[in-house]
Amino acid sequence: MDTLLDNLDVFTKGFGTTLVLFAWSAVFALILGTVVAAMRVAPVPIMRAVGTVYVNTVRNTPLTLVMMFFALGYPQLGLPKLDYVPLAIIALTLYTATYVAETLRSGINTVPLGQAEAARAIGLTFGQSLGQIILPQAIRAVVPPMFNVLIALLKNTTIAAGFSVMEAGAIRAFLSERGEPALVVLLWVAAVFVVLVMVLSLLQRYFEKKWRVA
Amino acid sequence: MSTAPEGRAAGSAPVVSVKGVNKHYGPLHVLKDINLAVGKGEVVVVLGPSGSGKSTMCRTINRLETVDEGEIRVDGELLPQEGKALATLRAEVGMVFQSFNLFANKSILENVTLGPIKVRGLKKAEADALALELLAKVGVANQKDKLPSQLSGGQQQRVAIARALAMRPKVMLFDEPTSALDPEMINEVLDTMISLAREGMTMIVVTHEMGFARKAADRIIFMADGQIVEESTPEEFFTNPQSARAKDFLSKLITH
């Protein structure tokens, strides 16, 4: 307990950054992932192709490499200079969005085709039928796997530690310098993650109840 | 035998015109050189055995199925490619499906108001009034706040008819509207359709309900193997079918 209480400053700062990374990446990944899922079911072949290429390239790349590209490659592209935290958010967003897109698409596939046909038959455009009819039904079916994606994202944020971002994954290195035993520190980090994931699980239960498929 | 009953479409352009339409599913030739013109206010009933292409033909008219060859016009306008223009044209063509396809995430009232609000730009109050009027007409106004899954099949199908009517369509397509219904619910849907026909709605009805065909049709189209084999008045078709295919089809109906 002393290890935690004596170094509360480092734990607070570390997990604070983790939550910042998680919250922004989750919001952006859900938005981008929805757009990509829509592209992958669009009636326009070129949009489907772009969506498929994006998902297949980024999803097939290890997150560490995506991070490395943004931490090391991006600053050399001559684009506006960005801090490591926003760069990590961009990397996490681009990576996680592919999983969000595929999860949503599997939900879209559970919605009977007749729903889309009926929507088109009354003259709704593709975007309207997706937004009004298809996605609201698809989301109900994908609450559990979508929370899997978010939980994975929460834990994936620790990879940013390798690229100069002071988040939960970096706490051990910081506290080793203060002479704290590494194993104890890591157990505390793990314990906090367990608590955070439990919060997400509670949220999942809430949404599952709220959107129970009729 | 291939002319519309006199007095209908005379002088005016047909509401639906299908010319030289062909469609293949791989090696299967599902629509063979289909020609059809439906005049304003006309009720055309399409009969035929399963797999004859009658549903496919019905679905090509609002381009839920694409065709390989030929042209389809609705109210004189060629069906456009996928996109905004097609959506606009589909709004003019009401469609009722075998499996109802009410929007599962919307209430009965919302099912009917969605099109008028999103496509026609009506205000919510106007759309609600229109929807309630139509729901009353098909006899399900008291169910307006329920979800589709809480209604019986017959009620759902009548809501689906109201949803299509809310767009004030120029023509209504019915794709086997009673085939998924329990026998005791078929009549409530057919009665709604008959009263619609009496009001002068232009209708194309794919069905197996011979009673409806006799009672409400101006013209019978008989399809088999992707072709229109016979086209005549109900009287003529049921008492004096010309083709062997139609005779065979009718004899099977009578023996059961």
Written overview of the protein:
The complex is a heterodimer of chains A (214) and B (256). Chain A has 214 residues and is mainly alpha-helical. Chain A has one domain: MetI-like (MetI-like fold, Orthogonal Bundle). Helices cover 78% and strands 0% of the residues of chain A. In chain A, α4 runs antiparallel to α5 and α9 runs antiparallel to α10. With 256 residues, chain B is an alpha/beta fold. In chain B, 36% of the residues lie in helices and 23% in strands. Chain B is built from nine helices and ten strands. Chain B has a six-stranded mixed β-sheet with strand order 6-7-8-3-9-10, sandwiched between helices. Chain B has a four-stranded antiparallel β-sheet with strand order 2-1-4-5, with helices on one face. In chain B, a hairpin with a 2-residue loop joins β9 and β10. The N terminus of chain B is likely disordered.
Strand-helix topology:
The complex is a heterodimer of chains A (214) and B (256).
Chain A: H1 2-6, H2 8-40, H3 45-59, H4 63-73, H5 84-110, H6 113-121, H7 126-141, H8 143-156, H9 171-177, H10 182-210
Helix pairs in contact in A: 2-3, 2-5, 3-5, 4-5, 5-7, 5-8, 6-7, 8-10, 9-10
Chain B: E1 16-25, E2 28-38, E3 43-47, H1 54-60, E4 69-74, E5 77-78, H2 84-90, E6 93-96, H3 108-118, H4 124-137, H5 153-165, E7 171-175, H6 183-198, E8 203-206, H7 210-216, E9 219-224, E10 227-232, H8 234-239, H9 244-255
Parallel strand pairs in B: 3-8, 3-9, 6-7, 7-8
Antiparallel strand pairs in B: 1-2, 1-4, 4-5, 9-10
- Give me the Rg of chain B, rounded: 18 Å
Q: Please name the CATH topology of chain A.
A: MetI-like fold
Number of strands of chain A: 0
How much β-strand is present in the residues of chain B? Answer: 15-25%
Shape of chain B: globular
Structural classification of chain B:
alpha/beta
Mean residue pLDDT of chain A: 90
CATH class designation of chain A: Mainly Alpha
* Main sheet makeup of chain A: none
How far apart, in Å, are the first and last alpha carbons of chain A? 47 Å
Structural class of chain A: mainly alpha
Task: Encode the helix/strand succession of chain A as letters.
Answer: HHHHHHHHHH
Got a strand count of chain B?
10
